[in-house]
Amino acid sequence: MSGGKLIVFSAPSGSGKTTIVQHLLAQPELKLDFSISATSREARPGETEGKDYYFLNLEQFKKKIKNDEFLEWEEVYRDNFYGTLKSEIERIWASGKNVIFDIDVVGGLDIKHIYPDQTLAVFVKPPSIEELKIRLKKRKTESDDKINMRVAKASIELATAPQFDYIIENNDLKQALKEAHELVSTFVEAEKKTE
Q1: Does the pLDDT at position 194 exceed 90?
Q2: How confident is the model at residue 151 (pLDDT cuts 50, 70, 90)?
Q3: Which alpha helices (DSSP H) does 122-172 contain, by range?
Q4: Burial class of residue 68 in the structure, from the number of CB atoms within 10 Å of its CB (0-12 exposed, 13-18 middle, 19+ buried)
Q5: Which domains does the chain have, with CATH numbers?
Q6: Which residues contact 74 (CB under 8 A, 6 or more apart)?
Q7: Going by C-beta distance under 8 Å and a sequence separation of 6 or more, which residues neighbour residue 73?
Q8: Are 53 and 36 in contact (CB under 8 A)?
Q9: Is 26 buried (19+), middle (13-18) or exposed (0-12) by CB count in 10 A?
């Protein structure tokens, strides 16, 4: 596999990375396309197959692992797998675009290790763990147990922030969007100068 650039956005759930990624996708000059992850979990209300995720059952997911069809994958929670299919990256690169990821910190760092020169890895940091919990509760998509599990995981994820190329502190969304756009724009433009 070779091709365009890979732009990774990772963060604990509720940090605002999805909002940032959606904003960047809406900027045509960046030539970005979203890497749709595969997951073994059930679709949540409002999620669409092939748009939000590729929903696979556990058996299908494990078969694709065995067949080396993933660029990266992880068992995030017990029997709850997420991963990036190699075919997804190839599809985007074939269309002449750069790949943008909204991905777990482990997956994001895996991609950076596989493609160190082609990847911009950005960590989105929430103002605090308390603010993160408030944001997750406001979503009203998960039980208190699930929220507590995500908050506990967030502390571990925050410790990985220094391993990323950049850290954006999402205290002010407008500022975070501006910072993200500047980072990605500079990274994508650098590619044109070296061609």
Answers
A1: no
A2: confident
A3: 129-139, 144-158
A4: exposed
A5: 6-190 (3.40.50.300)
A6: 81, 82, 83, 104, 106, 107, 110
A7: 38, 61, 65, 81, 82, 83, 84, 107
A8: yes
A9: exposed
Which DSSP helix (H) or strand (E) runs through 14? none
Residue 69: C-alpha distances to residues 14, 38, 60, 88, 111 (Å): 29, 11, 11, 10, 14
* Whether 56 contacts 64, CB under 8 Å: yes
């911009």: which residue's tokens? 120
Strand partners, 84: 72
Check: CB of residue 103 under 8 Å from CB of residue 10: yes
One DSSP character per residue, 66-89 reads HTT-EEEEEEEETTEEEEEEHHHH
User: Tokens 């029997």, residue?
Assistant: 79
